[in-house]
């Protein structure tokens, strides 16, 4: 039986314990101490990692060899959508250059990236989830490892998309557009989140959600996304390294696993839509985003790149909506579903450790951190 490094295992156990405290407590107050303690723990684990994560080596070489040679005029050209020799998104290049200008090694950049992605993400979770630690537990595997600890560009882009959700709620379009512009500057896939500003307003109910998802499941084998191949190819979603595809590939090869997760998410949204809509503020907004993500997943199911990266920003809202749905239920149902998801995450822990965890170097014999030696 393969385990993740003891530091990750300890964090996982703490998330489970804190989530029990959230769900089983009598008062509604959230624990700010718990969420920020977890945030600091997570930032240290990935911000100060050494040669960990599938894309770490190539990003490290770019940081010290390629990005310092990029002229700021080229970055401005890329910002203004003009012809540019830069092959990587401008905001990611700019952030690298700023950090490099202070003379720090690459782990300085990974620390800055972790502070942005984890700090901002957990702040958004705290504001929008009734059980923020439970939300972090659902995010922990695989999102924390695959995105924040590996594909940093997309993690930064998705984080800015989460920030933009605050302006979707307040209906501040220009602020939303600014966030999305910055997100696009980190990773092109963020552009897929642009319709979310209007999609959240589409009236939905259990029946409409069911028919929408079933329609997309039926369309899945026909690869209708090929009708938009020109636009999708322009997003250039292939990463700078093949490593990322390598350690998410285990799930793609056994797609029934992800299919099962999507079916479970669909059942929860359909079964408890009415009660959650009555009790949770802005639930309908989050629900519509998740439903779009599930539909897009099945549409893109035969393409492992599109079905993981392109829909990732929509699917990332499931870790917020599931705890909110559970919070809206009666006490017995609430505890039953919480236990179910804790058991599922424990199962997922061992699956991830055996496959992606080993490939991404998160296991005891391969994980390195600059704060200690193995």
TrEMBL record:
Pfam families: EpsG (PF14897). InterPro entries: EpsG-like. The keyword Magnesium does not apply. The keyword Endoplasmic reticulum does not apply. It comes from the Bacteria. This is EpsG family protein. The chain crosses the membrane at residues 31-52, 98-124, 130-152, 173-197, 209-228, 280-300, 306-327, 339-357. Keywords: Membrane, Transmembrane, Transmembrane helix.
């Amino acid at each position: 039986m393969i385990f993740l490094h003891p530091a990750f295992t300890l964090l996982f156990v703490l998330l489970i314990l804190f989530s029990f405290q959230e769900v089983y407590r009598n008062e509604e107050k959230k624990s700010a101490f718990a969420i920020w303690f977890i945030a600091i723990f997570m930032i240290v684990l990935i911000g100060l990692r050494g040669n960990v994560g599938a894309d770490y080596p190539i990003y490290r070489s770019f940081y010290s060899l390629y990005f310092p040679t990029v002229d700021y005029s080229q970055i401005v050209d890329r910002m203004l959508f003009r012809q540019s020799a830069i092959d990587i998104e401008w905001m990611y290049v700019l952030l690298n250059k700023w950090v490099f200008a202070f003379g720090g090694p690459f782990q300085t950049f990974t620390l800055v990236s972790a502070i942005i992605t984890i700090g901002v993400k957990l702040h958004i979770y705290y504001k929008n989830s009734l059980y923020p630690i439970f939300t972090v537990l659902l995010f922990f595997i695989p999102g924390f490892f695959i995105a924040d600890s590996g594909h940093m560009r997309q993690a930064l882009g998705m984080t800015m998309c989460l920030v933009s959700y605050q302006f979707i709620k307040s209906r501040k379009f220009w602020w939303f557009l600014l966030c999305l512009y910055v997100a696009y500057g980190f990773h092109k896939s963020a552009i897929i989140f642009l319709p979310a500003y209007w999609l959240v307003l589409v009236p939905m109910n259990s029946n409409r959600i069911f028919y929408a998802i079933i329609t997309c499941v039926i369309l899945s084998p026909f690869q209708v996304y090929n009708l938009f191949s020109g636009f999708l190819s322009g997003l250039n979603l292939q990463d700078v390294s093949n490593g990322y595809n390598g350690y998410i590939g285990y799930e793609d090869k056994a797609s029934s696993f992800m299919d099962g997760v999507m079916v479970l998410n669909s059942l929860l949204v359909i079964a408890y839509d009415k009660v959650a809509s009555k009790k949770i503020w802005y639930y309908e907004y989050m629900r519509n985003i998740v439903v779009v993500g599930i539909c897009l997943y099945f549409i893109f199911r035969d393409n492992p790149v599109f079905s993981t990266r392109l829909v990732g920003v929509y699917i990332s809202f499931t870790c917020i909506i599931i705890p909110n749905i559970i919070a809206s239920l009666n006490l017995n149902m609430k505890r039953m579903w919480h236990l179910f998801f804790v058991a599922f995450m424990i199962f997922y822990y061992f699956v991830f450790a055996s496959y992606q965890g080993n490939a991404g170097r998160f296991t005891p014999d391969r994980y390195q951190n600059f704060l200690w030696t193995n």
